[in-house]
Amino acid sequence: MGKTVKKNSEYHVPNLERALTILELLSIHSEGLSISEISTKLNFPRNSVFRIVSTLHNHDFLKKDDDFKTFSLSLKLLTVGIKALSEPALVEKSLKVMRSLRDKYKETVPLGILKGEMGMVIEEVQGLHPFRFVLEPGRKFNLHTSAPGKAILAFLDKNERDKIIDKIKFEVFNKRTIDNKEKYLKALKEVRKKGYSVDKAEEIEGMHCIGAPIFNRQGTAFAAIWISGPSLRVHEKDFHKIGLDVKKHADSISLSLGYYP
After folding, report:
1. Domain 79-256 -> CATH class
2. pTM across the whole model
3. What b/e sequence results for 92-123 when a residue is b if at least 16 CB atoms lie within 10 Å of its CB, and e otherwise?
């Protein structure tokens, strides 16, 4: 299954063209393919495929199944695309603010957006403690349990918010999990009142999160930043103080994106 690549310019890199073709092939084979299978389907030399696939794997664009010796696309490509489709300069404008928040509390500070009826981490600044939570880009999170999910949904247009909430399954993880729409709407009302949201270990035991929404220039909540840390360090009695601080930092990102309340 060789593929002819159009040469619109005299300047091209054959191995790069092969790498892109391999990525396209794997996009239609979610089960993954071996080096030999890729070589056969594309009629590329096996040694060349091995080098290209190894490079893509080393850069986390591919994941490997050690049992079956196959390779498939990782979430990294998705996160690269999500960043391109997100509000221009969101990550760039957020990182300095996220580092400032991280430096103050020493806890991990992620940045996330909505992705259907779930949320997705698109960037993070890791905490400074030896023990810290790591939320790598591409990781999805539930909207009904997470601080960023509540932060974004609380400030969405009612019609758009209701469409998303109607798709939430409200899976229960522990006794603190919000388990129905009525309780969730009540929680979102409280978020709108305070300006920040919390996750009191509602999914992961011992993990506290405090978040606030980011608005684009049209005034739409489309992203959130939050602090994630163990309950032994991020105490419930400090939620309000930290929440107002997270909101202040999130507001500064919104302003840098052209939002004026």
Report:
1. alpha beta
2. 0.71
3. ebbbebbeebbeebebbbbbbbbeebbbbbbb
